[in-house]
Amino acid sequence: MNEKTIFIKGAALSKDTVGREKEEQLDKIRTPYMVDRDRIVHSKSFRRLKHKTQVYIKTSGDHYRTRLTHTLEVSQISKTIGKGIGLNEDLIEAIAFGHDIGHVAFAHSGEEALNELVKDGFKHNEQSVRVLRCLEKDGRGLNITIEVLDGILKHSGFSKLTNNKAMTLEGQVVKYSDKIAYVNHDIDDSVREGILNTSDIPKNIIKVLGCTHGQRINTLVNDCIYNTLDNIEKGIIEVSLSGFVNESLIELRKFMFENIYLGNILKEERNKAKFVLYNVYNYYIKNIEKMPTLYKEIVEREGRERGVTDYIAGMSDDYCLLAFNKIYVPKFVIY
């Protein structure tokens, strides 16, 4: 495939990749980014995403998003934007599939808990890179290209005050797509849960983005494509939304953080999740020998906190709850 004739100038060409930390022979059929995508999809960490919470923990319905379905929606949105602009979809897909692979159980609550427990803090984007570099394949890592790791590392955050722009346009697309996906599908899940009505969304946001799930995503995807193409035509090699649309997305995201992610409605459930994670973490800090071999080896090389953090961060919601029950809940009474 001659990528140069397919993609726009400024797209990431496979032949120009910075490469991998460990040099390896090129695949006869797949580009380096296709190889990365396949390695991520076939990883154990990727499969665990199906049992990691997006927002709603242990819901009874089948239609709530998990961390895996969120990842698939990010991939779909980012590939649509990438195709519309003329970028490398293989690179986009690899970044999208790996962007949340280091996320903790119990969604925002889990990340918040680990961030409070770990001396230097915890960020899921940094953990995602760590998983791919040195935890997968029993500590050998997947030897992913620098462009994919960079896009994953810089997908998080949405502030212009931080220098957090991915080195490729493809990575920048995934960052926007992540926000487009989760803000809108979390609205959908919150309406399904009965704790939010679409009429609660500020009218000025509805006026710009649309009143339905489909309308909002369509507005944001189209705006991202056309505004980025306009940027490139002006010599600004950057992915972005136009002024009013970008402000509306930021305001909608703020609304969700204040009312759903960090609001009072889910506070009790968030506190329960944090209680579980705190206690499981503290147990393993005191009982290193109870962890699998990989994490005990990390403790020997990098310290107790690092090994326990890697173990806890890799747990799915179900696994973490099982660990909590096994450690703290009595199985029978001895007289």
UniProtKB/TrEMBL annotation:
<dbReference type="InterPro" id="IPR051094">
    <property type="entry name" value="Diverse_Catalytic_Enzymes"/>
</dbReference>
<dbReference type="InterPro" id="IPR006261">
    <property type="entry name" value="dGTPase"/>
</dbReference>
<dbReference type="Pfam" id="PF01966">
    <property type="entry name" value="HD"/>
</dbReference>
<dbReference type="InterPro" id="IPR006674">
    <property type="entry name" value="HD_domain"/>
</dbReference>
<keyword id="KW-0378">Hydrolase</keyword>
<feature type="domain" description="HD">
    <location>
        <begin position="67"/>
        <end position="183"/>
    </location>
</feature>
<dbReference type="InterPro" id="IPR026875">
    <property type="entry name" value="PHydrolase_assoc_dom"/>
</dbReference>
<dbReference type="InterPro" id="IPR003607">
    <property type="entry name" value="HD/PDEase_dom"/>
</dbReference>
<protein>
    <submittedName>
        <fullName>Deoxyguanosinetriphosphate triphosphohydrolase-like protein</fullName>
        <ecNumber>3.1.5.1</ecNumber>
    </submittedName>
</protein>
<dbReference type="GO" id="GO:0008832">
    <property type="term" value="F:dGTPase activity"/>
</dbReference>
<dbReference type="Pfam" id="PF13286">
    <property type="entry name" value="HD_assoc"/>
</dbReference>
